[in-house]
Amino acid sequence: MKTQLKTIIALVIAIGIPIHLGTAAPNPSSAALTKKEVRQAEANARTEADHLRLAAFYRAQAEHIQSNLTEAEGLATYWSQNSSMIRRTKEPNPYSAARGHADMYRAQLERATKRASDHQTLAASLHSQADHAGQ
């Protein structure tokens, strides 16, 4: 019994070490922005690089929101298969909650993708202005 326990512990350690060592340290230049930093960057964005950084932030945010939306839609689909949940008026209702979350994530996704697109467009505009000024 003790040898089995030791073997299991050794396997867990042996499997866990390569996984832990394989992860790289995060790059500080590409670290996620805080809400305060985003507000400051929005107010002070003047260069192409500033707008590209904000566009990348909003694209990453949109990817995260998309995964939440997919999960919420999956839950809504799951609960919709049980017709009693759709008609249920007593709260909490898991179907209504999942549908509400999906609607919320859909709106957030639309805002994040629009902001990413806006900043990408501004960056491209600044880039073309810099090209014309350089000629």
Strand content: under 5%
Query: Rg, please?
Result: 24 Å
Give unreliable regions as ranges.
Answer: 17-30
* Strand segment count: 0
Q: How many DSSP helices? A: 5
Largest pleated sheet? none
Distance between the termini: 79 Å
Oligomer: single chain
Shape: elongated
Fraction of residues in helix = over 70%
**In terms of structural class, how would the helical and strand content be classed?**
mainly alpha
The H/E string reads HHHHH
Integer average pLDDT: 79
Can you tell me about this structure?
There is one protein chain. Helix 3 (48-80) runs antiparallel to helix 5. This protein is 81% helix and 0% strand. The protein contains five helices and no strands. By secondary structure, it is mainly α. The chain has a domain at 63-135.
Task: Give a quick precis of the structure.
The chain has 135 residues and is mainly alpha-helical.
List keywords for this structure.
0% strand; 5 helices; 135 residues; single chain; mainly alpha
Fold blueprint:
Blueprint lengths: L1 H21 L12 H10 L3 H33 L2 H5 L6 H40 L2
Helix pairs in contact: 3-5
